[in-house]
Amino acid sequence: MRKQDKYIFTGVALAAGVIGLIDYFQQKDKLKRIGKKMTWENYNGHQALKKITVFGIVGGIAGNEFYKWEFREESKKEFSSDNFLRNLVREENPNLNPVKLQELKSITKEVKDKLYNEFSDQLVCYPETVGSLSKKIAITNTYDSDIVMPVKKDNHFGNMRNLSNEIHNTIEDLFEDNAEVIKRTRATSLLFQGNEGTHKIDIIYGREIGNYKEDKNLNLYIRRPFFWQKGKTFKTNIDIQKNLLRNKPKIREIIKLLKSYRDKNSLLIENTLLEQLALESLSVNNYGKEFSVTENLLECMDYIVERLSGTRILDYANSNNNLLNRIHLTDRQIAIQQINSDLIKINSNPYYIKEMFHK
Description:
Helices cover 54% and strands 14% of the residues. By secondary structure, the chain is an alpha+beta fold.
């Protein structure tokens, strides 16, 4: 909840709560004077509701006005948006909780070892770690592990549907006593309860198309939500996914800020889409990489609005895949409206960037 919304909600709750209590005791006193006790039958709930509604609205308006006054006063102080954003990136560093991070890494290693022991004769190589941690774009509250299992072209599973079902079922047998096992569209998720909280590990399995060790191309199977629906295969390149952001520290910095902004504002933009649009927006052909953190972030947000308003965003790992299909039209419109609104407000007062991150 943003600061302004908190002030409005607090104003409503305080005003409505106080007036509700006052009305209750006034009614109780009035009944007492005529020798009656307060009961649900003689309590005038309609009267109380009217007062609570009216004064709740007044309280909300007062809370909003107090927020505006405080915001104006805070805006008069010296403020560096670059310093604020850099501090935010530091706050979002998973290394701030090394015990939790190490626990996840240990569980991930145990899972990979167990998978390799079970499937080694069917795999091209030892399971690989991909995802936000390996790409150095993880943020504090939302990081997990992604594991890729590249299956040989010549395997005993048969077609892709059988491969997907058999591997999922075996994973379930292997881990159901220690974790919650969830079948997802393209993967199997494991939820482990550790000493430092819940750890999520996604296991992605696919069949090599050519020579995986050379080209890193895999065919994945996409499950449908209902058993009578036919699934389909999906090509992806693991090397592109793993190395897309290598040697790009400024872009990784902006991606972390975008992920934090997305999560704090409940915007449903998938990681792959967010990462690719950030990379595009900060490429030499668009805005360059020599601007300040604030300029890079705002230009990137503006670019995201532009691209989400289009009809097609090609996946770098599969040119036949339109990434916009992964986000519902309604969710796209909500994201576009929220980002546009924030850009307008920041343009009128740079201090608003703190509100954007709920600070």
